[in-house]
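Bug: token stream looks shifted between consecutive jobs. Job 1:
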Amino acid sequence: MSTSAPSTNRFERRRAETRRALVRAARQILAETGDTSASIQAIAERADVGFGSFYNHFDSKADLFDAAVVDAMEEFGQNFDERLAGIEDPAELVAGGFRLSALMADSHPELMQVLRRRGLGHIHSDNGLVRRAVRDIEAGLASGRFSPVDPVVALTALGGTLLSLVEMRFARPDLDGDKAAVNLAEMVLRMLGVPPDDAHEVARRPLPAPTPAQPA
């Protein structure tokens, strides 16, 4: 019996595990200091992989750190999808995203530090979080929930406000993060054309309860 297929599968699994370890190490560095000057040797040691393995996956440190940011953004978006599943109102999705971001500063600090340090440069990139934001904006425009506006401008406003909220959560941990997120969400919804009374109510709707596998 041929063993080539199982051997290939094992090789691909090891290769994927090595790449994940390198990305994980880069995410840790970004979260801790934001300093990308660490040597490839130091990154490989943190990932517990051989130095030569680095170039089997990335052409440069810049490529690795970009991949780490994209990985963090995708995890961020997946958390949104899981917690907000079943909500169809684009306005409620936008508001829920702001409130979950405030909560995730405590439950996912490494992830949020990566977003804080590198998110601005990725507001208009094609990553998982941005794709989800564009989806919700376009749904709101198509349904008439939001006033006609250039989706790129709306995305810029949402992204910039979200990053400001994340920065505030780390700079002012004494503040009530959810209250700030609710107020920001209400302001953003009004900016998008949701009537004031409606924006006030939507921003304060209870968040869906987390599943047993999710943090509160």
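Job 2, same session, no restart:
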Amino acid sequence: MESASSAKTGDFFYGWDLLYKTVQSDVDKKPDLLIALVHFLLTKHYNFRCVGIGDDKTLPEEEGSELLPDNWNDDDTKYSLRYVHDKMLYLLLGHITEDALLINLMDINTKKVSNICVEPETLVAAVKGGINTLMPSASEIVDRYRKELLDPVFTGNSREVTTQTTTTSPRPSGSDPLRIGEPRRGGSFTPGGFEPRPFGFPDIGRGDLDPLGRGGPGNLFTFPSRPNMGPGHMPRFDPFGPINPNMPGQGGPNPDHMRPPNWDPDYYM
């Protein structure tokens, strides 16, 4: 529904003048205008149809009208109007006290009842004229009607309301909602079915999980460059493959590759 802040400047009250002209001769007290404003809100913005006066709880067969019925304000102390929406019956009841108007809206089907108390002498400035002359705070009154009278009882939507569709970004194909972090990109090979490294820990041992030997240094940390390492030899890997005796330096694997610390070959003799 259109908010109160924009009601005066928009076309929210378009149609009020026509309704007012049909009842202008009947209006003789300020509470009449507050009831007429509720009727305008129900019929124009909530698609209710008035099916007469009284408090009969039997659902009528007629479709109803957007006009106020005859004799709607004949009683000096109360109002009783019946409305239909989507084959559901609603009662709008008003009671005039010394300085206030108590209005109730009842859903006959669900038995939900709402109420609001308004002060005609404060809210209604005149009984003749345009909407801004009659009720200078008409927008605020309508907002109160909607929040205190309609929302607690009526579960449908105002014809002013537009449906908002929540869009969800599509999940990439093959993504796992329980996975921590994003899969690794780039040159490191990740065997199918293995989870990416969690929490940014070093990718140690990944190469040992791949039978083709791709994707990392295995169970050894990658050694930094030689500077600042102090004395000692860098670890060496002796490649092996088909032996070609005509090429110098080729041969089988060197058995001393990566010997344990304090290696003593006589210990195994």
